[in-house]
């Protein structure tokens, strides 16, 4: 697919340099990382050294002060290599923006420079064993005790859970709030805080190199200066930031769909059956044409959304549409592309097999697609 309208010469150079870096430092190692079920910390540090971690952070905190359009390019190029690199996008475009938006000057000075270098890897802990999309009903508590909060609870399915040494945790600071969402706050908990432990690395169907874990808090004493923003505003903060998180998921799904189509076009041209190339069969041509059309529609919609988001517009309804439609489209494309690969598509050495495993979770995390449809329905007046 073509480049975005907002891409300048500077963007093109940025993409070209990043793609070359990833070819040398990620693509050649990616299969091993999948077998190891972990991306090495050394890769994070290299990303930081070259300015690919949190480039939007202000220069005074060590960042490059770039806008979200550069984050879009990073997300796309990482996803082109493989979905297990999603933790980098989460760090850059989902977690660190909470600190940028709601952190005090002291908190920003303390945490942001290391987020930019990769010395600090972040995670956001919302989901609990009994609570997914229903964030108002989280059970993890943080009760004030002098100059500390005492945190008790458990989080699960936490992206970057093993590597993270700075976690933004959604907690109940007022478990008795009449309106449940008004009792929620965000607290930043650092690795090494007594009472904070990491559980097992969770075994997933796909995204094998991405470290997903359980986190436990048992009488975990967190200094009150680690409260992010105001007490009781956590739910509002999460709602404000979910627009960019869901947009990021749509961008990843779109990139994966484009990559799968490219892989499949190359494959069907080279594969022979019944004395001719598979690409010569009308069925193949129709399937490819259908997928290419849907991908182009997704790209066009996404482009306008990214521009509106960068301009600071409220695009929650459209983002919910994009997150739902583009992730489901990617899932359909994964299945069709695997079919066009025939038996080889089911073999681990072919990238399409990995894609087939990695893509389905995109319609689950960052709010399930059913929740996206609820948001759309509500916002159009139903």
From TrEMBL:
Query: What are the Acyl-CoA oxidase/dehydrogenase middle domain coordinates in residue numbering?
Result: 123-220
Domain (Acyl-CoA dehydrogenase/oxidase C-terminal): residue spans on this chain: 232-380
Q: Which PROSITE patterns match?
A: ACYL_COA_DH_2 (PS00073)
**Entry's EC annotation:** 1.3.1.95
Which UniProt keyword terms apply here?
A: FAD, Flavoprotein, Oxidoreductase
Q: Which GO terms describe its biological process?
A: butyrate catabolic process; fatty acid beta-oxidation using acyl-CoA dehydrogenase
Domain Acyl-CoA dehydrogenase/oxidase N-terminal positions = 9-119
Gene3D superfamilies linked to this entry:
Acyl-CoA dehydrogenase/oxidase, N-terminal domain, Butyryl-CoA Dehydrogenase, subunit A, domain 2, Butyryl-CoA Dehydrogenase, subunit A, domain 3
Top-level EC class, please?
oxidoreductase
- According to its UniProt record, what is one Pfam family this protein matches? Acyl-CoA_dh_M
Please provide, alphabetically and separated by semicolons, the GO molecular function terms listed in this UniProt record.
acryloyl-CoA reductase (NADH) activity; acyl-CoA dehydrogenase activity; flavin adenine dinucleotide binding
Needed co-factor(s) = FAD
InterPro entries, per the entry = Acyl-CoA_DH_CS, Acyl-CoA_Oxase/DH_mid-dom, Acyl-CoA_Oxase/DH_mid-dom_sf, AcylCo_DH-like_C, AcylCo_DH/oxidase_C, AcylCoA_DH/ox_N, AcylCoA_DH/ox_N_sf, AcylCoA_DH/oxidase_NM_dom_sf
Family listed: Belongs to the acyl-CoA dehydrogenase family.
The protein in question is named: Acryloyl-CoA reductase (NADH)
Q: Which organism is it from?
A: Lysinibacillus sphaericus
Q: Gene name on record?
A: acrC_2
